[in-house]
Amino acid sequence: MPTGHPDYDLHVILRDRHDSELAGLDWFRSAHLDLVVIELAEFRVRGMPGRPDHFARYSYVHAEVLLDRLDGTVARILDEKRTLGADEARDAAAGRLDAYVNQAYRSLKSYRDGRPGLGHLDAAETVPHALEVLFALHRRVRPYNKYLRWELERQPLGDLRWSADRLLPVLRRILGDGDPSTQRALFAGIEGAARDAGHGGVLDAWGADLDLLRHS
Asked: In this structure, how many other beta carbons lie within 10 angstroms of the beta carbon of residue 15?
């Protein structure tokens, strides 16, 4: 997705930063280059679940290895970051699904009780959780928003409801005004996908509260 303001993001992986003068260039920034100098041990866990830098995970999904002097070690570590492991995906989908339902329930309860402004705020917070669920169900790392359409078009999530031309307008509507009917339509799709993937227990734990997400 090149623009008129391109730059390169480059990682240099070191066995030991104390043995290299390159360590002093960590976080070098210019108009054309962003440089990260990182030790191998740190690179193994960077962007992984539970880490404060978990947000960096997507930056590795399409990264290229330009030079690997460790007989493929760097490439293997990178490949582990590109997709979610089976257990990781299951845990991520379940956890984010619960968070999504919680936020949607709070939103629709506020709309029901005559507090649309507060319901709108909660509705906006459902969107990140919804995206995390949809991508985790396919063992994929949620892309940065900038690349969301590109990812959905390049590698669709299967169901036509999750195509770029159908999902993105739904998300924009929820972000725009929190429309309850749009929220319920999105929940219906996510509920079906989650149950098909074996996450019915997470949903059923909400009991009758789910009725608010299904009916006005």
From this structure: 12
